[in-house]
Amino acid sequence: MKTLISLKELADADLKTFNEIWLSSAASLSEHGPSEDQLCLWRANQLFTHDMLSEGTHGQNVSRVWLVPDDIDAPANVMEIEQAVRARLAELEMEGEFYPAEQADTHNSFA
């Protein structure tokens, strides 16, 4: 089951239990595989632990949280969410990479 939070909830959300923050259109939330209407906004620097890699369970243990913009294709909506996420991550002293899809394929198995 996917964990969803609203922009209002983001300000107080404990994101420390999540490795990735994704954006999705409302229609794509029920899909189990990758969709054009989904974007990995942020990924933690340490996504996988040594134990996860040695056990071969790294793909199963990635914890994602999903945000649903009004329009995922509108750059202004995505930028608003990105700014809010950046502020919240800074408050929580969490480090990671924004838009990791620009570096690698972020479409893997979805939980």
Topology record:
Blueprint: E1 3-4, H1 7-10, E2 20-24, E3 38-44, H2 50-55, E4 64-67, H3 75-91, E5 96-98
Parallel strand pairs: 1-4, 2-4
Antiparallel strand pairs: 2-3, 3-5
Description of the molecule:
By secondary structure, the chain is an alpha/beta fold. The chain contains three helices and five strands; from the N terminus they run βαββαβαβ. It has a five-stranded mixed β-sheet with strand order 1-4-2-3-5, with helices on one face. The longest helix is centred in the C-terminal third of the chain and has 17 residues, at 75-91. The chain is globular, with a radius of gyration of 14 Å.
Task: Describe, in short, the structure shown.
With 111 residues, the chain is an alpha/beta fold. The chain contains three helices and five strands, in the order E-H-E-E-H-E-H-E.
Structural descriptors:
3 helices
Strand content: 15-25%
**What does the main sheet amount to?**
5 strands, mixed
Strand order of the largest sheet: 1-4-2-3-5
Low-pLDDT parts are 105-111
Helix percentage? 10-25%
- The shape is globular
Q: What is the tally of helical segments?
A: 3
Question: What is the N-to-C succession of helices and strands?
Answer: EHEEHEHE
For the residues shown, what is the average pLDDT? Answer: 81
Number of extended strands: 5
Radius of gyration: 14 Å
